[in-house]
Specification:
Layout lengths: L16 E6 L11 E6 L4 E6 L7 H12 L4 E8 L5 H19 L6 E8 L6 H13 L6 H7 L8 E9 L2 E10 L12 E6 L5 H14 L15 E6 L15 H21 L7 E9 L2 H13 L1 H8 L5 H9 L12 E4 L2 E5 L2 E2 L5 H8 L3 E7 L5 E8 L3 H8 L4
Parallel strand pairs: 4-5, 8-9, 10-14
Antiparallel strand pairs: 1-2, 2-4, 3-9, 6-7, 7-8, 10-15, 11-12, 11-14, 12-13
């Protein structure tokens, strides 16, 4: 169950990036669960990682390797998170990097590992090591769709986005994939996201873009308010398009930033649309707040309310649940008589209570839609923020109750 068609785009190959996929049989011998991204020499990589204090072993290793050497390979496995695994987990993450490095003829520090799946189980290193040669043999610049499927866990469909833009007469390509359906409130980026461009981007600017774009996309989504131990989102710039280096002073930067943001948003929205058991895609907007934090506090309180989310699943215009969530969001000295709450184009709350022109029929018409916008106008400042979420269905409980079965 998911919202929208969910078809993958036509992926434009990114010069300097090859992808290979193989099955290690970590959970299912019929499923591809190991993905390798090979990056051309000279590629630059920036990343964001989970802020969960129990971050997984591959997060520790990837963060360390990224700080020491330019990456040449990204190694991803699904089916096992290698989180909550102590010293053995660290050794296992390093062993996987060592195996890929030996097979590819690079330093172990040139490999960044990423894992996703069940927490607390030992990583099946021998299975992953055995699959690495098959993934390397499969390397191709055209394997974006295969890789999108290869990083799935409880996802019901692969997620990807691709764009081309002309910058100063040079065609620049951006392609990306993401995965995630549950344990989603990233607090940095997404469950796993990999975006690559063949533009040449100055290193400090690349990290600035990774942070800014992550904050505007993946850091504005939530399925269930849980931050994973394994979240990571990487932005790769190979520089292979042949154009000049993009810096903060480049006239091409605004156009490149806009194209990158389109890819980031498409990948982030795809996660919400495929939220575990999701039947609705919900945009929550907060306007006229005094600060960004105030706007986000209100938006996330509504987005995380089980009562709001179950009403959305039932298509029940129970607007009192939204009102109650706004009231407990911790906004100091909130003037409840001044604010307005809208469901689509229907005003629910005005002048401290139900809007005079509201009717159950009009509210129901909006709630019956698959894509819904809830807008809260606080009428107290100039700040606007937007987050995206989904509903809670019976299937969400079933999927997570049976996750290890």
């Amino acid at each position: 169950m998911a919202v929208g068609p969910g078809t993958l785009p036509e992926f434009f190959p990114v010069a300097g990036v090859q992808l290979g996929v193989a099955s290690a049989g970590i959970k299912d011998p019929q499923t591809n669960d190991v993905v390798v991204l090979a990056l051309a020499e000279g590629s630059r990589v920036a990343g964001l990682f989970t802020r969960n204090q129990f971050c997984a072993a591959p997060v520790h290793v990837a963060r360390d390797h990224l700080s020491r050497q330019a990456p040449r390979y990204l190694l991803i496995n699904t089916g096992n998170a290698n989180a909550g695994t102590g010293a053995q987990g660290m050794a296992d993450a390093h062993a996987c990097c060592d195996a890929l490095a030996a097979a590819a003829g690079v330093s172990s520090r040139a490999v960044l590992p990423f894992s996703t799946g069940v927490i607390g189980e030992p990583l099946p290193v021998s299975k992953i090591v055995a699959a690495i040669p098959r993934a390397l043999a499969d390397l191709s610049p055209s394997n974006w769709a295969k890789a999108a499927a290869g990083i799935m866990t409880t996802d019901t469909r692969p997620k990807g986005a691709s764009r081309q833009v002309t910058l100063g007469g040079t065609t620049v390509t951006i392609s990306g994939i993401s995965k995630g359906a549950g344990m989603i409130r990233p607090n940095m980026a997404t469950m796993l996201g990999f975006i690559a461009t063949d533009a040449c981007i100055q290193p400090e600017l690349l990290q600035m873009l990774a942070t800014e774009l992550g904050d505007r996309s993946f850091n504005r989504i939530t399925v269930d308010s849980d931050t994973s131990t394994n979240d990571a989102c990487m932005l790769v710039a190979t520089g292979a398009c042949g154009g000049p280096e993009i810096t903060l002073a480049s006239t091409e930067l605004p156009q490149l930033r806009a194209a990158l943001l389109e890819v980031y948003l498409e990948l982030a929205h795809a996660i919400v649309r495929d939220g575990e058991g999701a039947t609705k895609f919900v945009t929550i907007e907060v306007s006229h707040a005094r600060s960004q934090q105030e706007a986000l506090d209100v938006a996330y309180t509504v987005a995380h309310s089980p009562l709001v989310k179950t009403a959305l699943f039932a298509s029940d215009p129970n607007w009192g649940r939204i009102l109650a969530a706004v009231g407990r969001a911790g906004v100091a000295n909130l003037d409840v008589d001044a604010l307005e709450i809208w469901l689509g184009d229907v005003c629910l709350v005005r002048d401290g209570g139900r809007a005079a022109d509201y009717s159950e029929e009009r509210g129901q018409a909006v709630m019956d839609q698959e894509e819904i916008t809830i807008h809260i106008d606080l009428q107290r400042g100039e700040v606007f923020e937007r987050v995206w979420t989904c509903d809670f269905s019976h299937d969400y409980v079933t999927i997570n109750a049976e996750y290890r079965s």
